[in-house]
Amino acid sequence: xxxxKLFTTIIGLCLLxxxxxxxxxxxxxxxxxxxxxxxxxxxxxxxxxxxxxAQRLQRMLTDDEVIINCVPGDNTTLALERMQDDVIxxxxxxxxxxxxxxxxxLGRNDDDEVYESYKNGLQKIISQCRENxxxxxxxxxxxxxxxxxxxxxxxxKMNHDISGWDVLSINFLGALDDGKGHFVExxxxxxxxxxNRGHEEMMLAIPTEYFTIEGFDxxxxxxxxxxxxxxxxxxxxxxxxxxxxHIIHSFTISASFIPKxxxxxxxIQFQENNLSISVSGANVSVLLNNQNKLSAExxxxxxxxxxxxxxxxxxxxxxIYSDGDLLTSFPLFSVPxxxxxxxxxxxxxxxxxxxxxxxxxxxxx
Length: 365
Fold this sequence. Notes:
Layout: E1 18-21, E2 27-32, H1 34-37, H2 53-60, E3 65-70, H3 76-81, H4 83-86, E4 94-98, H5 101-104, H6 111-131, E5 135-139, H7 149-162, E6 168-170, H8 172-176, E7 188-190, E8 193-194, H9 196-203, E9 213-217, E10 234-236, E11 239-242, E12 251-257, E13 262-270, E14 273-280, E15 283-288, E16 291-292, E17 305-312, E18 317-322, E19 325-331, E20 336-341, E21 351-355, E22 360-364
Parallel strand pairs: 2-3, 2-4, 4-5, 5-6
Antiparallel strand pairs: 1-9, 7-8, 10-11, 11-20, 12-17, 13-14, 13-20, 14-15, 15-16, 17-18, 18-19, 21-22
Helix pairs in contact: 2-9
């Protein structure tokens, strides 16, 4: 069986213990560099920079206020210098952080130094948001046509590390990656920036449900003995069900469980397709429209296992991983409509986690 480590597509797991849902107009600041600024897109006239993913989000969230304060070329150091004026002074409910490791110097300077600079700068921005009662949302590192194979490993490592932080995040890499760290062919304006369609895919990776949170408390220590609160799905005796409010394309969804008994871990309904992933003891079954898609016999380890489904819409590919190792991959080109996970496992207690470009939650049943 082919093995391949998963780094890029797992999105940050947030342990959301207290969440209050209530509608009120929200203020969102998009704080980033050139891609977040819309470079270089066309909406009403050629290259007017009004059709980037942030402008699309602005037009979609008509009941909310979206402020776009992005400066092309900014790295984390330059962004921190304008944090007070361009974010905190606006007193937003949310800050969508849209920076890149390319501007930090990846591919031009020492990779380890760039990595540490970007990580530390991003953590400072997140901390300043929280100190001012602003909920941070991190846009993960995305492709660049100039990235080498080594650069690609660094952005995947950064995204993997961010996935361990207690922060909401957006899978921009999964939306645009050709599998080599470059933009999918035909979706590049020029090497550093996606074209209009690329920005559309970035927009379609943003879970707008993130912006319905009134507030949340994060307590990693107490999470193990509390029932998790689901964002934004509905939890019941049959697990978690999530129906996106807006169309999404690329996504990553993962769940941790103890492989005992029998259970349907994921059931994902696409347009004209249905994907079901179930376990029976340590054995995995993958069905697409009732046809077996698992390429080899698989035995899960006895302790807690994390299974991940990653779908890249532009690449027309769906991948399934177990603890980072690729179980199976097959072509698929469809739009996801409904996600269900965590149906009962014969009474065995399990811990489920959903971290993806569609949602972020922890469920303990």
